[in-house]
Design a protein that fits this description.
Elements: H1 20-31, H2 37-44, H3 48-60
Helix pairs in contact: 1-3
Length: 70
């Protein structure tokens, strides 16, 4: 019986913005620093799960980081 695995690939900063929605989220963050995820969901009209998935991807590639991190 074959085992199914979810494979995670590190995109790298040169390809992280190949996704249009991820680019929109990143641009919104740079234009409106300090906004909460909830307010971005409302402003951009993006479902919560989608927003947090893309935020996590941006965080993994060190393009964004949560408030309070140095």
């Amino acid at each position: 019986m074959p085992a199914f695995m979810v494979l995670y690939s590190k995109l790298g900063q040169d390809r992280i913005f190949d996704n249009f929605l991820r680019g929109r989220i990143f641009n919104h963050i740079t234009d409106n620093p300090g906004r909460s995820g909830t307010s971005m969901i409302v402003s951009l009209g993006i479902p919560q799960g989608t927003m947090f998935y893309h935020l996590r991807r941006l965080e993994t590639e060190k393009c964004v980081w949560p408030a309070g991190w140095t």
